[in-house]
Fold:
Amino acid sequence: MRSAVSLALVTSLIGSALPVAAQQHTPMAGPIAPSITREATRFATVEQSKPVDSEWSRVRKLAPGTELIVIVKGSQPSNRYFVAGDESDLTVLNVGAPSLPTAARDVLRDLASTHPEYFLAAQKGGQFAVQKNVRVGPDGVFVADRKVADLAQIVEQYGRHDITEITTAKIESNPVGCALAGYYGGGIVGGIPGTVIGGAVGRDTGPALVGMMVGWSMGAVYVYRKCRHKPEKLIYSAP
Structure:
C-alpha cells in the first residue's frame, strides 16, 4: 500500500514538474524540475526498500519493564528488561553485571517499569537520583557515590536486524495474590454457570447450590493456574 502511494506521488510530481519546466524560461527553471523528480524518485525507492515487519510492532507495544529473553545474532539467549523500542531499535536493561548489588538491581528493574525514560535521558547527559542512594547518569550507576557499573553495561541498544528472536520470560506470580484472584474469579468463571446448570437440572435450590460449589471450585483452580504460571510468549522472530 505504501509502495503504491509512493509511486503515485512520483507520477504526480513528475506530471506537475514538467509543465513548470516548459512554461518557465529563466535560467533557474531548468534545474528545479529535475531536482524535484530526483527527490521524489529517491523517496519512493527508500519507501519501497523498507521491510514490512508486522511482528516488530508487537515489540513496540511491550509494557516498560517486561522481562524478555533476547537472542542477538551470534550470541546466547539473555534475560533483559524492556525499556523502549521504535521502528528500528530495541533498548533494554541488563541487571546481570556482577558488580551490581542486589538492592541496586531491584531499583533499576523498578525504574524500567515506572520511568524508562530516565535511562534514555541518561544516555544524553541526564542525572537521576532514585531510591536507596542509587544514582543513574552518563558516567554510570552509583550507589552512595560508589560507581558500580558503566551506563553501557546496564543500558543496551540493538538494531532490529541484529536480533534473531524476542520472547517474554516465563513468570511465576505471587501465590497469595493468585489465590485471591482464584477465589473471586472462580465465582465468576465457574460459580455462576454452575448455579445455572444446577438450577436447570433440579426444581429446588439443592442442585443449584451443588452446581455453584462445584463450578466455583473448578473455576478457582483454573484462574489460579492461569495467574500463577505464565509461559514464554514469542514476540518477534527474524524472517
